[in-house]
Amino acid sequence: MVEHLLFANEACNTAKQAAGKNQIIQMKGYNSDKYVVYDIRQTKWGLSYGVINLRTHEFGQCDLIRPLSMSRIYGAGYYYDDTNPQFMDAFEVAILQNEAEQIAGEKEKERKAEQGRDEQLRAIGRERLKTLIPEDAKAAIIAELHENESDSMTDYYGYRTQRTVLLGFSTHTRDLFSEMRKYAANFTETAYLTEDNKDYEHREKYSMGDGYYLGKSKYGGWIITKERIYDREKFIERFALVAGDEANICGKVQADAKDTPATVAGDFIIVDYSEKAIAVFGDTRPVKDELKALGGRFNPKLSHEGEKRAGWIFSRSKESKLINLLTIK
What are the backbone angles phi and psi of residue 181, rounded to the nearest 5°? Predict the structure, then answer.
């Protein structure tokens, strides 16, 4: 099989052996690690090379190794020195292979242990979501923390999702940034997205786009999206692992009266915020779970006495419960 290199007047025959056993090759683009070839196998697509990273002593695999003598190096990949090839002693390679096998075995044990832990969390999450999702819910408001993995050198743009949080549920399927901002207050890490900033609003409802999402950038930081619940069981299965950790559930859940402490002492104030709302200010961090359970929404930029202050917004109907919960100084 011949592989043509994009934008290069070059082609590589993957059926023709490029490097030999025990030969040292080097990665270009992603890193500068060196590898040694320990195995060469014939596949229906061409030759496949088993390699060992000389820095980490871990196994790897590649199907294409390009010569360094090409007029230019095109993109990330494995390269061999076809002018001055280097080889390792076969005994040294055998020792490296034994170390790599031990490392692979330990990783497999860790993978299976993690798989077991994940399945336990999924079981917890399934049961939690069955009772958490309202019967009339048609969509969920989701927050994701993205880590930028873009590489301008190789013209790659992407991200990795580090964490997913369920902010709440919606009874309709319309994409509304105002709704996303409202639910952003349910989670401390996304509270800054409650700000009415048009730069946070992204509309990518086109082919290969990411739909509507709220955030600074889809490549890094927190973004908020709305996901339709087409099939309740499939939705539960998809987010079971997320819901297995209670810290990832930030949607409003009403608490039973018996689960709410009678009073909590602290330096709090309750003020009239609007015709239909009241606000709580003060050191609310120790009672944030109780305030959230009463239906409160945290906002870091509420207006109070001519300045911006962090606080909680409640419906006026919650005033008596708040007074019963908080010992106001």
Answer: -65, -40
pLDDT at residue 75, rounded to an integer? 63
% of the chain surpassing 90 pLDDT = 46
CB 119 within 8 A of CB 237: no
Above 50 in pLDDT, residue 17? yes
Closest among 270, 103, 243, 99 to 165, alpha carbons compared: 243
Give dist(CA 141, CA 242) in Å, integer: 13
Look at the block and give the residue holding tokens 């609007």: 274
Work out the burial of residue 40: count CB atoms within 10 Å of its CB; fewer than 13 is exposed, 13-18 middle, 19 or more buried: middle
Asked if 219 and 212 count as a contact pair (C-beta separation under 8 A), the reply is no
Q: Answer yes or no: are the C-beta atoms of 269 and 203 closer than 8 Å.
A: no
Domain ranges, ordered by start, for the chain: 2-88, 114-248, 257-327
Report d(CA 227, CA 234) in Å as an integer. 12
Share of the chain above pLDDT 70, in %: 86
Contact 91, 22 (CB under 8 A): no
